[in-house]
Amino acid sequence: MKKNRHAIGIILILIIACALMYLVEVYFLPTYFIKSIFKLVLFGGLPLIYYKISKDKLKKLFTMVSKKSILIHLLLGVLVYAALLAGYFILKNFIDLDNVKSQLGESLKINKDNFIFIALYISFINSLLEEFFFRGFGYLTLKKHISEGSASIISAIMFSVYHVAILNSWFSPWLFLLIIGGLFVVGLFFNWVNRKNENIYNSWFIHMFANFATNTIGLVMFGIVV
After folding, report:
1. For residues 58 and 36, is the Cβ–Cβ distance under 8 A?
2. Which portions of the chain are predicted below pLDDT 70?
């Protein structure tokens, strides 16, 4: 019964945090700085409250147990970076970068002048926050209380659904659905790479390099690099 309560609590926090972030993205339209504060409170603060009340162990999520594994996943991150850039060049005719730039400027006040700072935040801090929330809290902690497979699927669904509000107006409907489906698969993969060591470093490094790739595209979009 206690395990059931813990599982329900984790799942409710995942749903509530993602739902509130959707409302922030779609209706409040804050600057990126304000949005980041909301996200830090929801994705960081709510799980910390859970850990405080439940006595589930938090420290293990940040305990590095294998340097070899870290090196392997850093290399994998480099390959992901190259693959995403290759994918961009293959699909760039289906992506309206001018529309993306306009959306970012209107909704989040992201522009050429502040993009580099935001790109650094997204790559290093935001990626860590998402890995803590979706993989550390939403998978590694959740699977202590329900089956590993169910925890992985729930975590991956929430990870993909969270991106709906962010990506909805950026791409054509079919490409949008393809990307959301791809994010679900990525969520499953990130859970898998963390499963053995039960910390979030492996997925964080891969996520970081994936963000490096999207931010490289952003540098081109804003004309910072040609």
Report:
1. no
2. 1-3, 165-173, 176, 226
Provide the CA 176 distance to its chain's centre, in angstroms.
16
Asked if residues 88 and 170 have their Cβ atoms less than 8 Å apart, the reply is no
Q: CA-to-CA distance for 204 and 28, rounded, in angstroms?
A: 29
Cβ-based neighbours of 81, under 8 Å, separated by 6 or more: 209, 210, 212, 213, 216
Report d(CA 70, CA 141) in Å as an integer: 21
Torsion angle of C-alpha atoms 189, 125, 44, 150, degrees rounded to 10:
0
Burial of 220 (0-12, 13-18, 19+ CB in 10 A): middle
pLDDT tens digits for range 202-213:
999 999 999 999
List the structure tokens of 69: 């594994």
Name the H helices within 24-66: 32-39, 46-54
pTM: 0.91
